[in-house]
Amino acid sequence: MRTLISSAFISLDGVVEGPGGEPGYRNSGWTFKDVEFVPEAFDIKAREQQESTAVLMGRTSYEAFSPVWPDMNEFAHYETMPKYVVSTTLTEDKLVSNWGETTILRSLDEVAALKETDGGPIIVHGSVALNHGLADAGLIDRYHLLVHPLLLGAGKRLFPATDKDTQKLKLVEHAVYSNGLQMNVLDVVH
């Protein structure tokens, strides 16, 4: 079974909305304008590209990333790996042509079936609503979190607010950087 990894920039209070400057959120761009840049804190992002074999995202994140990431050297490795977009509304004619193989999945059952195929880890970027569904369905195996020393208050959060039994996580890797950023890699205990 393939490992499904949720990767996120996250504030100390759990907000993941608008990390890169996306419009419509009052604290948009908080990852680079409010915390000093320390290159080694982002080494995990390069590692994710080398270790992942597929990218999974929701429609909103696909629509935000697909016009930009194909032309960015920082994400060059993602161009060659298969991409999967979970959406009930996205149509084939809305897929970009310059970002390699992209498949639309219509349900979390299809994500579960994808996990059962041969291959390496699948990385999830962005995709708040998708992360909530994946977490509630027990499909996430690992979290890569870059925790920023900020309290953003209101905003979309990575973890769902579903009333459910305790979910245990096991810290398998961590680091703290001079700018206060924390890198936490946590396995979901199934």
From TrEMBL:
Coiled coil: none annotated. Signal peptide: none annotated. Residues 2-182 form the Bacterial bifunctional deaminase-reductase C-terminal domain. Gene3D superfamilies: Dihydrofolate Reductase, subunit A. It holds the Pfam family RibD_C. Transmembrane segments: none annotated. This is Dihydrofolate reductase family protein. It comes from Streptomyces mirabilis.
